[in-house]
């Protein structure tokens, strides 16, 4: 199972080192660690639009959604290529419902 998170532009790949720490991103990083430990067969990848723009084109559903609604729709989360949530990060419970 592959979880992919398509992030909006951020200061770094984690997004938690900017001038003001975003609690949502800290919680997301915690949730990713929980998933990695609890579900060893699941992989989690994060892509930032400013650093890995080709990844956003590789997933047709993600590319189409951004093209239609703009970058404001980010973040987008997919599981095995299917969009499960957009415009905000999923909670741990939301991700676990798909695992």
TrEMBL record:
Pfam families the record matches: ArsD
Domain of life (superkingdom): Bacteria
GO MF, one annotated term: DNA binding
Stated name of the protein: Arsenical resistance operon trans-acting repressor ArsD
GO annotation, biological process: negative regulation of DNA-templated transcription; response to arsenic-containing substance
């Amino acid at each position: 199972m592959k979880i992919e998170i398509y992030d909006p532009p951020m200061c770094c790949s984690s997004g938690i080192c900017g001038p003001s720490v975003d609690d949502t991103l800290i919680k997301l990083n915690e949730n990713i660690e929980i998933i990695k430990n609890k579900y060893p067969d699941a992989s989690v990848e994060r892509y930032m639009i400013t650093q890995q723009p080709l990844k956003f084109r590789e997933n047709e559903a993600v590319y189409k959604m951004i093209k239609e609604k703009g970058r404001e729709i980010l973040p987008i989360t997919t599981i095995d290529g299917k969009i499960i949530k957009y415009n905000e990060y999923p909670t741990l419970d939301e991700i676990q419902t798909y695992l």
